[in-house]
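pasting for ref
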Amino acid sequence: MFRERLRSGIRSVGLALREPEEFAVLWHRGEGRYPLSVWAALLATAVLGTTTYGMTMGLLGGADDVLRKAVLCTLGAGLAWTIALPALYILNSLAGSKLAASTTLLAALVTVSWGGLAMIASIPVNWFFTTAVPHAGFVLIVNLVVFAGVGIAMSDVFRRVMLRLEPDRKSTPVWWLALIAVIGCELFYSFNVFHF
């Protein structure tokens, strides 16, 4: 029983990361009912991505800074996502969306999980440039480029998922990711995450 649930959960998370549109549509149509473990695994992917990438942001400062930035990067990203999430559902509904709250949450969760994977994929880039050119200004530029690239990738995933969920709508609420970016920048600045 446990093994089958574990396998099913792994298959579901794999589908969410390979084909996020299909994953969300299956939930929306009621063809896929994902247990809490799948939702937790998607959240864990986002947390793992921000934590491990945050560790590389602290390379210039030593072991204490590595751990501090791992925690602060995850905390800042998590707070930004959590603060902006109600606005996504409320404003999207006011704009004519008929999606259930759970479907909207799943679309957002798949997007941030995908963003976590993009952060993990960016670790070698940040690590290489941080060790090759250990200058605070240069490291800041590298990190800003990485965050911008991850943001663009997340915008693309979120836009595609929302278009598949509601193909009749003319626009998708990509503004939500811009709101997360603004809140995240404020939090990262307050937490000194980009101070190298």
